[in-house]
Amino acid sequence: MHDPLIFSTKPYDYLAHSIAKLGGWELGVLDRQTFPDGENYRRIVTDPADRDVILVGGTIDEVSTLEMYDLACGMTMYGAYRMRLVIPYYGCSTMERASKPGEIVTAKTRARILSSVPMASRGTQVFMLDLHVGAIAHYFEGGIRPIHMYGKAIVNAAARRLAGDQPFVLACTDAGRAKWVESLAKDLAVDAAFVYKRRTSGSDTEVTGVSANVTGKHVIIYDDMIRTGGSLINAAHVYKDNGATKIDAITTHGIFPGDSLAKIRATGLFGQVVATDSHPRAVALAGDFLRVESIATLLVEHLKSNR
């Protein structure tokens, strides 16, 4: 029986290379071309027959979602005996339920698409990291086995590096993530903090307080996902107004569309932001302000322990 064979969608080539190197596994070759009319040609060059195939990709956009689907279908059709889909960032995760009549629960429809990939003879697994809503793991249908991985170790290590030997408070952007941040803070043996909000209208909220004393303290804000950074900036202002002397931020999934990272930096509120490489956008923006930590070791550990 051969060792695992690693493939990836185009945006995640960097992560597939890291996984293959750390695992000592073979990196598969794909032929990709785009025709003038926009149609995509894909060919699996490395034969997946009778192989344990790991396909790294993500639902970061519609093109990437369909590429993952096409490749997974092709690899099972050409004989992969096990298919393992690694989705470092599950897009559409904030659309996990309908709050208004007629809304499409996109997180579920994407799971249904991937659930229709033909089942490999020895099963199909889906690995996902720090889902915004854990219930998404149960949206997959049929015989697919979902595995929800937690990046606690990466977040905790990043917090310790940011704090050095000095005390700090681990905070979140609102009470909605309080339980997760409290769990992280307990592991780190530090205080947890979050801001209280009161809805004043259908679109506006008012901050009414902070759950812990942050006066004169280093505050590290954790949010599982940073997109435009609006919630992060608002929370940082509150912690600053309540006496925080230094503020940093950690996120598992750094999306940062457009110039959002530049806007976060321009506030002057943050010393540094730390993200994982679960999203290719964070990798592209890595620099002195945005530090990016690899999830490859975590992925390899889970892939080895879930054969």
Write a concise keyword list for the protein shown above:
Rossmann fold, six-stranded parallel sheet, alpha/beta, 16 strands, 9 helices
Summed up:
With 307 residues, the chain is α/β, with parallel strands linked by helices.
Structural commentary:
The protein is of the alpha/beta class. The chain has 2 domains: 5-149 and 296-305, Rossmann fold (3-Layer(aba) Sandwich); 152-276, Rossmann fold, CATH 3.40.50. It contains 9 helices and 16 strands. The protein has helices at 13-23, 62-77, 106-115, 152-163, 178-188, 230-241, 260-266, 280-285, 296-305; strands at 5-8, 26-27, 30-34, 40-44, 52-56, 82-87, 124-129, 145-149, 168-171, 191-193, 195-199, 205-210, 218-226, 246-254, 273-276, 290-293. A 6-stranded parallel β-sheet has the order 2-1-5-6-7-8, with helices on both faces. A 6-stranded parallel β-sheet has the order 10-9-13-14-15-16, with helices on both faces. Helix 1 crosses helix 9 (296-305). The radius of gyration is 21 Å and the shape is elongated. The protein starts with a strand and ends with a helix. The mean pLDDT is 91.
